[in-house]
Amino acid sequence: MRILVLGGTGEARALAAALVADGMDVISSLAGRVQQPRRPEGSVRIGGFGGVDGLAAFLRDDDITAVVDATHPFAATITRNAAIGAEQVGVPRLVLRRPGWDIQSSWQVVADMPAAARAVRTWSGESVFLTTGRRDLAVFADDDRHRFLVRTVDPPEGPVPPQTTLLLDRGPYTLDGERALLREYGVGLLVTKNSGGSMTAAKLQAARELSVPVVMVQRPPLPEGSEVVATVADALAWIIRSGSGAG
């Protein structure tokens, strides 16, 4: 078997390590949007495929026998391309996706980033903590009324709000650290994505303790017909079934 893992998450790295330990041939693909990514075990390729056609060609030319999409829950483009490309080539595809955070009644849940930006514009407070990633800041760029604390792994490349304080940092984050951060910057509103997982969940607990309201962006829907598992163990079981012809 020759497995392509579409990665960039902790689950993807754990899966690659497990596959290497089992002696399987694995290629992890990273989008290349982070300057210093955490490299998984096994072979690694960095950069895009060139759309659906490029991904389908890669699957054919490299004799890929199964694809596991373990990308970030908000990486909608590569997830869609993987679904179409794998179907074109006839390669089995699985989505390995951590569960989202349980929705709290106190959160303002919005469908996408433009909706989050609209929610911020109507908020009467001052200091907003944005943890939505550097690629989604442009929708807030024309907001000159609020002060924004923006936390990203790498510096933004596009437009940002006029009153922006940039904090370059990478999780996991602690509850004590998140409490201190919210207090230091006088944060009155937290805007984040429903990424799930434990690495960045402490901000939600800190916000709850300090009565900071939350705007939560829901995940984009998965392509129709996607088979989804939540754990590396389940992904490994699926790969074994796929290799035996039962997947």
Task: Give an overview of the whole structure.
- The protein is α/β, with parallel strands linked by helices and 247 residues long.
- It has a six-stranded parallel sheet, sandwiched between helices.
- The protein contains seven helices and twelve strands.
- It folds into two domains: 2-99 and 222-243, 3-Layer(aba) Sandwich (Rossmann fold); 108-217, Rossmann fold, CATH 3.40.50.
- α6 (202-209) links the parallel β10 (189-193) and β11 (214-217).
Helix percent reads: 25-40%
Give the helix/strand class: alpha/beta
Indicate the radius of gyration in whole angstroms: 19 Å
Arithmetic mean of pLDDT: 93
Give the secondary structure arrangement, pairings included.
Layout: E1 2-6, H1 10-21, E2 25-30, E3 43-46, H2 51-61, E4 66-69, H3 76-89, E5 93-96, E6 108-110, H4 113-121, E7 127-131, E8 147-152, E9 164-168, H5 175-184, E10 189-193, H6 202-209, E11 214-217, E12 228-229, H7 232-243
Describe this structure in a few short sentences.
It is built from seven helices and twelve strands. It is of the alpha/beta class.
